[in-house]
Design a protein that fits this description.
The model has no long low-confidence stretch (mean pLDDT 95). By secondary structure, this protein is α/β, with parallel strands linked by helices. The longest helix has 25 residues. Among the domains are: 104 residues, 2-Layer Sandwich (Gyrase A, domain 2); 82 residues, no CATH class; 179 residues, Orthogonal Bundle (Isoleucyl-tRNA Synthetase, Domain 1). The chain is 53% helix and 12% strand. It has 21 helices and 15 strands. The protein binds arginine. The site of arginine has 8 residues, from loops. The site of arginine (ARG) has 8 residues, from loops.
Amino acid sequence: MTSLAEKLTEITGAAFAALDLPVELGQVRVSDRPDLAQFQCNGAMSAAKLASKNPREIAGEIQTKLLGFGHDRDTYVNSEYVSVHYQGHEVFKNIEIAGPGFINLNITDEYLAAHLADSAVDERLGVEKITKQETIVLDYGGPNIAKPMHVGHLRSSVIGDSLRRICGFAGFKTIGDVHFGDWGLHMGQVITELEERGILGQNVTLEQLEEIYPAASKACKEDEARLKKAQQATRKFQDGDPAYRKAAQQFAEVSIEGIKQNFGALGVHFDLWKGEADVHEMIAPMVNRLKTKGFAEESEGALVISVEQEGDKKEMPPLILLKSDGGVMYGTTDLATIVERMEEYKPARIIYVVDQRQSLHFEQVFRAAYKGGIVPDSTELTHAGFGTMNGPDGKPFKTRAGGVMRLEELISMGIEKATARLDEAELARDIEASERADIAQKVAIAAIKFADLQNNRIADYVFDIDRMTSFEGKTGPYLLYQAVRIKSLLRKAQAQGFEPGKEFTIQDSDRSLALLLTELPDVFEGALKNYTPHLLCEYAYRLAQEFSSFYAACHILSEEDEALRSSRLALCELTHRQIALVLGLLGIEIPERM
Ligand code: ARG
């Protein structure tokens, strides 16, 4: 169904068109001055330029047209949709012209109520579904085999999983791929380390790996010869040396098991558990094709694709396909992975949720993919980059010991803190231990995810465990608490035999919440368009706050007037459904009680 702002835009656009002005000027949006009006249209100013007239005069003409206009809308009445005709004054309570020619619009409570009733019967809460089913591959997570997962992988997986849910709800077929780093130098480093210790070929455990990789990496940093060895081992491994492959397979299995546990605890889902290694076989044919077609060329012994374009403002180095020793690079496997994804899934889009610092890499890969005919122009390749998670000192987040924070440490730290917060707020007190532990886990995950997702993803943010686990303020736990509270109110109502109504009665104390509830479809669309879950976080928070004010100002269960009570319960129910939907899109689970 059409959102309220869209509906008003249609009506206002028609008024502009009736005056022979461009219909687009009728764009209506939620007012940025809610103290003055509910909605606004700024089109009269541009119209004035076109028509060489005074903008206030044009605004006046639009006002007259709008009030004189009628319009039909399909409305849900007695379990079916019927077309209802609204006179202008039945849509608009008043229309005012402000300043140089702003058109300030307020709608009638009846029109608002009718719109809400329509979205309440819609199982999608008014959010439209895309009409053409297309596939989106999302590449997120990206942990590296045998290396500890760090907070960068946390950001990638939390944001990526949310984008997968958002795209899925919009109606796309989504495929989330973890895209392991299992082909790079770190593989050779670990293999060399195992060799040096004389344990290559023996099974290693996760605990051993946790010590082996850092040791290997340190040795390579300190010793040039050791680095050379690791590079050679990497090459040998890539070329299929049986002993190296066998060893790598064993420690990869162990490592992946640990990674899966972490993602499980975090509630992050993947459809594919593929990695760089999976496209190895596709590299040679791809490179040959690129060579034959003349896209790849030799440069200083290496094979490269030049990706410079006219108008480039910054230096754009070529993408290296093969190093002079014939070894493959990060870009090579990424390009071959695109070949594979196009063949297998024919996606309309591929979205990479990867650290913003890799933006040059993706720019090169994307350009090479288009240039080499690996993807058609109609396929959209997007790098949805993200900023750094910093510590309180403004530098990339480290543990107290100064190392990178590992994902499992972070999660258990979150759970510990969440448990303390529950105690502090005297919540979930009489609930038995196992359910209480489950609640603490959900509160912790909500805290971690919401703290991450609420920031515009490109921005860096400061990780502050105290702030993000608080039950007050713009936090995940606050939203969970509100959702649980509304649910329990609805349960209480049901126990008293009160049901939410199908119709709404709007009074002064209900209006702000009612208006806000109409914004969801537009907020969702914004989040989908730019892959920005923070818009949904913002919305959920506003909703929870608006609900609190409504709750403080209104009688609900104690309301004597039946129509009003059932309308208010319907507002509660709609608020709950919206918060639950939005939190679901963020990958946040709500406990039954708290
Ligand atoms: N493994 C990489 C890293 O840790 C991230 C992989 C991202 N995905 C990709 N297709 N390049 O930085």
